Amino acid sequence: MSNLKTTLTGYTGYRGREGHWAFLLHRITGLGVVLFLAIHILDTSFVYFAPQLYDEVLKVYRSTLFGIGEVVLVFCLFYHGVNGIRIAYLDLLAPKAWTIEKTRRSAYLVLVITLVLWVPSAGYMIYNLLRHNFGMFGG
Amino acid sequence: MTNIHQYDVVVVGGGGAGLMAAMYASQRAKTAVISKLYPVRSHTGAAQGGIGAALGNLEEDSPEWHTFDTVKGSDYLGDQDAIEFMCHEAVQAVYDLEHMGLPFSRTADGRIAQRPFGGHTNNVTKKPVRRACYASDRTGHMILQTLYQQCIKNNILFYDEFQAMDLLLVDGKVAGVVAVELATGELHVFHAKAVIFATGGHGRIWEITSNAYAYTGDGCAIVARRGIPLEDMEFFQFHPTGIYKLGILITEAVRGEGGILFNKKGERFMERYAPTIKDLASRDVISRAMYLETRAGNDVNGQRFFYLDVTPETVNKYAEIDGRTRPDGTPYRVTAQEILSKIPDIADFCQTYLGIDPTRQPIPVQPTAHYAMGGIPTNIMGQVVIDEQNTVLPGLYAAGEVACVSVHGANRLGTNSLVDLIVFGKHSGIHAAEFALGADFVPLPADPTEYVREQISRLHAGSGKEKAAAIAREMKAEMFDHVGVFRTQEGLEHAIQKIRELQERFKDVRVTDSGKIFNMELLQTWELGNMLDLALVTAQSALARTESRGGHARDDYPARDDVNWLKHTLAWMDRDQIRLGYKPVVITKYPPKERTY
Amino acid sequence: MQIKLRVFRFDPEKDQKPRFDTFFMDVDPNDRVLDLLEYVKADFDSSLALRRSCAHGICGSDAMRINGRNYLACKVLVKNLHSDQITVEPLLGLRVIKDLIVDMEPFFENYRSVLPYLINDEALPEDGKERLQTPEERDRFEDTTKCILCAACTTSCPSFWSDERYVGPAAIVNAHRFIFDSRDRAAERRLNILNQQIGVWRCRTAFNCTEACPREIHITTAIAEVKQAILSGKV
Amino acid sequence: MSVTAKEPEKIRIQKNFDQIAWMAMRYSGVLLIPLAFGHMILQDVVVGVHQITTDYAVERMATLGWKLYDIFLLAFAFGHGMNGVRQVFRDYIHNPRSFRIVSSILFVVWLVISVIGAITLLAINPAMGR
Ligand SMILES: Cc1cc2nc3c(=O)[nH]c(=O)nc-3n(C[C@H](O)[C@H](O)[C@H](O)COP(=O)(O)OP(=O)(O)OC[C@H]3O[C@@H](n4cnc5c(N)ncnc54)[C@H](O)[C@@H]3O)c2cc1C
Ligand code: HEM
Ligand code: SF4
Ligand code: F3S
Ligand code: FES
């Protein structure tokens, strides 16, 4: 188990740069998304296996807590996807571009693109959440 | 409890010489290498410029010329039979390295690339010749890596991080070595038929040095304590271009590529000291020129440094003035890019330690203690010889910087040390294996580790009144000031007295760490003892030699004196006294002449 | 300038647990961190244990974690750290033996596993001279010949932290040096070794290795080239 | 010019799972951009959970186009994700036996959930709406 300790020390304590953070975020977001996906497949299957219960599921989905979680999920998928494309592009098409400058810059670019996608989405989702759950904006 | 191991051949040291010896010895005899550093950490890895061999890949060259240049470079103190042997063997040795995988830089037609280097000339035109075979500016690194790789391939047995502390002699024959295992603090006895010392130099005695922390002269000190003389210890090379204050080496190759030295007036002062090859004169000549310039007040800011300029503008300007051409006859002109590609590591040092880009700014340099020409006397087979008659001590070998064959005489030419390692490393390996096959083990003494234990317990038993660090500091400063580039009787006497005083004070040092595991303090304090001993031998040998020759420059005896001093110094450490003796220089083809560049 | 130096200490013969010793000292911004550690040994606590030799970034002895990142202590100047607090710790992922000294054996074992030596059993040129190689062929692996086996890369790699069987960037760099050498004939063997579970596929391009390499080797590029060679079967 | 005139070496590499998985992660990832991003943007952002009802879900899943889309998404996203999880576990679990057990469990989880998802997608038809 000393490896686990080393790993955690390294993940949190090592002052890695962009590549290190990109790796950590990619891993965390990937695991987050797959966890959600597993649950999501199962709950959606209620539509077929237990349609009555699906309404309950939808209630949970509409809860405030879940709404916030959903905003996070959207970030996770956006980040993971955009960064995944960065990795796939460099690995498959431009292996020579795995250089310090390009890695640093592309890691920032990924963050920017993610935010460009996420911020409006999150805004709209929060708007909906506030409207439906808190009756704001004439909801 | 001590651990006893038995090998036909034990190699002490895992640098270029040690690995080469191990590779050849292990082909025939059961061999082990013990090294206080991981072999790849050895100082051979620091060598930058190149390895000299008359391959003639770019222009006409011959081992004869290489021989003559080396003899001349040695200020006629080198043994000419050994030099001739080395320079002829060099060619095959370089091809051997290539076959082992060494990634030499290449010429356009795929051959090993070569560059000019200080003191290497075309004997006919007297112009610099391209003789230094190189792999960028990390030739030594590539030699060390390549040899280590081959050792792995050949399953050579390594005792990494084992520090030898004593040589076992029984009735004038080698019985083995005693080493401490750093990781456990345990003593190990290596019972051997033949022992090869390849422990490198001792440049850490001086304050400003290009040498590694590990360069504490363990090999010389160990054998000297066992009654073996040290040869030509007064000859220590000061390399003219160490980075100001740090001593980090800026290879001669920088001047080979066209770099020029300037004093504070912006004058190319080497024109005055070596009118023919100017900035590519040999090291002792340039270091001495710098000293004289300093004395004349021409050093920059009065701080004893000069500028080495490799900016393309300067290089091209002076290449034009000198009429330097490329092999195809076109004028020699360079771009910043080209310079960078030839000396990437140097550029990196300048960037890291000085924050300057050498293709835009000049590099501040000063002479730095660099290379021990002297050491354990050997013959061309690497056998240690212990007196004026060159009597062989059976089973004991030395190779590399620790040895004095003597091929470098009073001054080593750049690139010749790597040649020395490879050639004599190889031959000592071959010969040691041969010897071991025909010899029996000499029985170990009753208590083989006694002397080492005694030395260690003394280091623990000191009163603690004195600090090792302070003693080291004072020794280095004293040596740099008085046993440096220029020496005088007064200075040397001062130094000798000071070192004796430091040796006394050293007895009051106490090692605070009483542990066994990686007790670096203990070992480093022991190393300081070695350095003090060698400092004394160096100063004593220098005081006796009342002439100036190569790396040994006496202010009070400025001329070379072939009548009285064309001989090698031998220095014995008899308890606390240094006894000096002399043996003749071997001269075959080249009678001494005045040495001008 | 005045700095606060914190040094990781652990003496296996005395201590149950590691501790940090703190030293306040006046230093020159141009001092190397190695110089500071030498000041500690000279003036404060001579029992501090570390490896070092060349003092100019060429022997690979003194890789360690400085302010949380791997450097050679002799190649990083105080001013480069932009801080008056300096924390020095041993490399992560290798067992600490004493103070800043770690057990390098697993690292060298990984290195040896990739056949880091020239293999070519074909006859040598008849004239006994060098095997030919063009400057272009030589350039192909120039970068990876620079490695000094300091382990700064491997011990900064998240994949290595979690599993020291991963051969690690340093081993791949040294394999690369031979795979792309036109004189070598064992690329196939090396690529098959690196195609294993503990080989190149463990690299998640976390890039700490390249950031840490004191020789500025483009490690991740080299790893990517090896991956490509495995996939395409071409070197 | 190549003076060594080295024959391009014919190198045979033993194909293995890691190598294939590495490629698969990248290709499936690229494919997942339209699939996963599309799905998420539509469902979570544009439509939003508050508009989603059982009827909506049934209707959508019953349309042939969306059915295909969802099946692809299920196959690629969950496969990609579960292999990702397997790789992460492999970083931390070193005992080969333990790892074999864990990956078997992951495989079963993947299979069961995928089958449940597949049945749902395949079986739903418009008639099921209320
Ligand atoms: C910066 C620099 C640049 C140089 N450039 C050039 C150049 O361009 N061309 C050239 O020809 N020469 C050059 N030289 C000189 C040359 O590199 C050295 O003289 C040569 O490498 C010495 O090799 P060696 O094998 O004798 O010793 P090293 O390579 O230093 O090996 C010594 C070995 O002995 C071991 N050792 C030491 N003491 C003990 C002990 N007590 N017990 C066990 N093991 C021990 C060490 O661990 C090490 O493995 C340069 C030197 C320096 C410092
Ligand atoms: C949207 C498009 C996506 C792209 C482009 C993408 C790309 C990638 C890539 C290239 C990797 C391999 C990383 C590596 O080996 O270094 C990866 C890993 C991973 N992906 Fe995705 N992915 C996407 C969507 C998803 C989805 C939807 C999930 C969850 C179901 C997911 C979960 C994971 C996980 C868990 C990993 C392993 C992470 C790790 O090894 O650290 N990915 N992804
Ligand atoms: S690749 Fe760089 S960081 Fe890694 S061991 Fe080699 S020199 Fe050190
Ligand atoms: S840090 Fe590790 S994950 Fe790859 S890019 Fe370097 S080896
Ligand atoms: S001491 Fe040699 S690399 Fe730092």
Automatic annotation (TrEMBL), chain A:
InterPro entries: SdhC_prok (IPR039023), SQR/QFR_C/D (IPR034804), Succ_DH_cytb556 (IPR014314), SuccDH_FuR_B_TM-su (IPR000701). GO terms for molecular function: electron transfer activity; metal ion binding. Its main location: membrane. GO terms for biological process: tricarboxylic acid cycle. The chain crosses the membrane at residues 21-42, 62-85, 106-127. It is found in: Membrane. Its cofactor is heme. GO terms for cellular component: membrane. Signal peptide: none annotated. Keywords: Heme, Iron, Membrane, Metal-binding, Transmembrane, Transmembrane helix. Belongs to the cytochrome b560 family. This is Succinate dehydrogenase, cytochrome b556 subunit. The gene is sdhC.
Automatic annotation (TrEMBL), chain B:
It is an enzyme of class 1 (oxidoreductase). The keyword Electron transport applies. The active site is at R283 (proton acceptor). InterPro entries: FAD-dep_OxRdtase_2_FAD-bd (IPR003953), FAD/NAD-bd_sf (IPR036188), FRD_SDH_FAD_BS (IPR003952), Fum_R/Succ_DH_flav-like_C_sf (IPR037099), Fum_Rdtase/Succ_DH_flav-like_C (IPR015939), SdhA/FrdA/AprA (IPR030664), Succ_DH/fumarate_Rdtase_cat_sf (IPR027477). Substrate binds at H239, T251, H370, R412. It is a peripheral membrane protein. This is succinate dehydrogenase.
TrEMBL record, chain C:
The lineage of its organism: Bacteria, Bacillati, Chloroflexota, Anaerolineae, Anaerolineales. Residues 137-159 form the 4Fe-4S ferredoxin-type domain. One of its GO terms (molecular function) is 4 iron, 4 sulfur cluster binding. It comes from the Bacteria. Its cofactor is [3Fe-4S] cluster; [4Fe-4S] cluster; [2Fe-2S] cluster. Pfam families: Fer2_3 (PF13085), Fer4_10 (PF13237). Keywords: 2Fe-2S, 3Fe-4S, 4Fe-4S, Iron, Iron-sulfur, Metal-binding, Oxidoreductase, Tricarboxylic acid cycle. The keyword Transit peptide does not apply. One of its GO terms (biological process) is respiratory electron transport chain. PROSITE patterns: 4FE4S_FER_1, 4FE4S_FER_2. NCBIfam families: dhsB, PRK05950.1. This is succinate dehydrogenase. The keyword Amino-acid biosynthesis does not apply.
TrEMBL record, chain D:
It comes from the Bacteria. GO terms for molecular function: metal ion binding. It is found in: Membrane. InterPro entries: SQR/QFR_C/D, SuccDH_FuR_B_TM-su. SUPFAM superfamilies: Fumarate reductase respiratory complex transmembrane subunits. The keyword Cytoplasm does not apply. GO terms for cellular component: membrane. The chain crosses the membrane at residues 20-42, 101-124. The keyword Protein transport does not apply. Keywords: Heme, Iron, Membrane, Metal-binding, Transmembrane, Transmembrane helix. This is Succinate dehydrogenase.
